[in-house]
Hints:
With 180 residues, chain A is mostly helical. Chain A has a domain at 1-86. Chain A is built from 8 helices and no strands. In chain A, α1 (2-22) runs antiparallel to α2, α2 runs antiparallel to α3 and α7 crosses α8 (148-179). Chain B has helices spanning 2-23, 27-51, 58-81, 88-92. In chain B, α1 packs antiparallel against α2 (27-51) and α2 (27-51) packs antiparallel against α3 (58-81). Chain B is flat and about 45 Å long. Chain B has one domain (2-92): Helix Hairpins. Chain C has 174 residues and is mainly alpha-helical. In chain C, 52% of the residues lie in helices and 3% in strands. Chain C is built from 4 helices and 2 strands, in the order αααββα. Chain C has a two-stranded antiparallel ribbon. In chain C, a hairpin with a 5-residue loop joins β1 and β2. In chain C, α1 packs antiparallel against α2 and α2 (34-60) packs antiparallel against α3 (64-93). The longest helix of chain C is centred in the middle third of the chain and has 30 residues, at 64-93. Mean pLDDT of chain C is 71; it is low at 124-174. Chains in contact: A-B, B-C. Chains B and C meet through α1, α2 and α3 of B and α1, α2 and α3 of C.
Amino acid sequence: MEQLINMVLLTLLAAITFGIIRVRNLFAVVVLTSAYSFLMASVMIVLDAVDVAMTEASVGAGISTVLALGALYLTKTEEAEPRYSPLLPALVAVGTGAVLVFGTLDLPPFGRADTPLNTDVGADYLARNMAETDIPNVVTAVLASYRGFDTLGETTVVFTAGIGVLMLLKRWRKAARRED
Amino acid sequence: MMFAVAILGVLAALSLAVIRALKGPTAFDRLLAANAIGTSAIVLLALFGFMTGRPEFLDIGITYALLNMIGTLAVLKFFRYGALGHAQDAVKEREPE
Amino acid sequence: MIALLVDILSGAALTAGAAFYLIGAIGMTRMPDVFTRMHAVSVSETMGVGLMALGMILQAGPSLLAIKIAFVVLVLWATGAVATHALSRAALHDGVKPLLAGPDGRLVATDCVDLFPELGVRLAQPLSSETPEERGTPLPEDGAVIAEPAPGYGPAGNTGANPDAEPDPTREGR
């Protein structure tokens, strides 16, 4: 059943991706991207990565949509025709994808015990988590407690980037008004 | 078992919504389909949680419901108040197909 | 015994909900224009989601989980109605005209004013006649035959009892 759900969702993701490539109206692209994010979040949930699903939905479907709309306010709604043939970029993308797929062939099977993931610190975290931090979710404990400073740095970077984007949008909007 | 039946139904509905999102023809059709895809994702999440015996992740469903609403309303507000062109642009692009 | 009954009930609710959900989605793919599609989606967003949630609540029993499901459904019902309203309003404002069956059964793109000519009802002032090229644009649709407005459905034929009605004062100007 899980495999069936995954297959259907991934097929739909591929279909939406081709739709995004083909459609030239940028509004439609924004809407399709939001739908893509929701489907991707569903895939993440089926894969049991709940925190990634949460991030994907809130960033992809929520904030990205609003930011893309803000950018659309400043540009045209129709995508310009490409000046060069898209053949070479397509070839490069397909080649990179093939290399990546080839790389996955060497990955160990899912959940095997003797991979570095399970032989290194992972078991340590699992054993000591409750005694040391008292947080029931180990992923949350690692992110917010063991690597708290790391997460703080990431949050600062994201916050700064968000403020920068907001300031850029505001500046441009004022300039555009003055021209009118 | 019955959760599996319901999941199959929702997956079929999801596919139909994606078809509508890809076909358009106006931006509003796509928006409607995207909204339906978001709802389907929430229902799928809840049903999948029940099927695998771990329905605790339903909190995420609440987040999705609110996000879906925010996304839809943001787009609609831009259509209503922003000088962003018209959905009729989307009709034109369908003709070559 | 009770457990079996609850199982049967929740199974029936889930199956019926999934059926409603699917019916709504089929309607969204097959209906001819954006307003009828919205109408179809409302089936899946109310009955479909509601029945499936009822099935899940029956399975969850009296617990925090049941309250969470009920909350999700209430949020979906409320936001779905608001989103549909905003969507149809934005579509009308943008010049998408509803399709209506003419006297010969063909689908005709009509203005909001002409929806009920035989009743003499003016719903609102024309929502989309700001530029001339917008006014004449019919809405091409899958399977719908776009025809010239039939007699009795065009603006000229709108000889309702209230032709000079004031524009709706609650409508905000652009």
